[in-house]
């Protein structure tokens, strides 16, 4: 089943695949949500946001909420897209490409810090876990 393309499955096929993978879901679960659960169970990576893409707002945000254009720095050690969770909504952001995101995503990225310690002095310094640059308001 690992080579299954869930995008081409109808509702009945999605339900069969979910049951075969022992995934729990409710009858009113949307097809796209069920596809995502099946893909995740099969180990398929989430689709990263494409260049210049505007990501949807998180639940509870007004349509007039501020949105920013950002670029998350590339990293030689970690080439995976950055996953940011805000109020139950996951944003998958491709590194090195400009995307438009809600202000809440920028806030979460700003708060994501790593504590680095100097091995000789054990002095702590804080650095951004996902260095990013705000290009401006969208």
Enumerate the spans where pLDDT stays under 50 for 5 or more consecutive residues: none
Q: What percentage of the residues does DSSP assign to strands (E)?
A: 25-35%
**Helix content, binned percent:** 10-25%
Compute the CA-based radius of gyration: 18 Å
How many separate structural domains? 2
Spatial separation of the terminal alpha carbons: 41 Å
Strand order of the largest sheet: 4-1-7
* Series of H and E elements: HHEEEEHEEE
Largest sheet: 3 strands, antiparallel
Q: How many DSSP-defined strands? A: 7
Overall geometry comes to globular
Helix segment tally: 3
Question: Structural class of the secondary elements?
Answer: alpha+beta
Task: Indicate the topology.
Blueprint: H1 11-20, H2 31-41, E1 67-72, E2 82-86, E3 89-93, E4 99-102, H3 103-111, E5 113-117, E6 124-128, E7 132-137
Antiparallel strand pairs: 1-4, 1-7, 2-3, 5-6
Helix pairs in contact: 1-2
Question: How would you characterize the overall build of this protein?
Answer:
The relative contact order is 0.16. Helix 1 packs parallel to helix 2. This protein has a three-stranded antiparallel beta sheet with strand order 4-1-7. The N and C termini lie far apart (41 Å). 22% of the residues lie in helices and 26% in strands. By secondary structure, the chain is α+β, with helices and mostly antiparallel strands. The longest helix is centred in the N-terminal third of the chain and has 11 residues, at 31-41. The protein has two domains: 6-41, no CATH class; 67-137, no CATH class. The protein is built from three helices and seven strands.
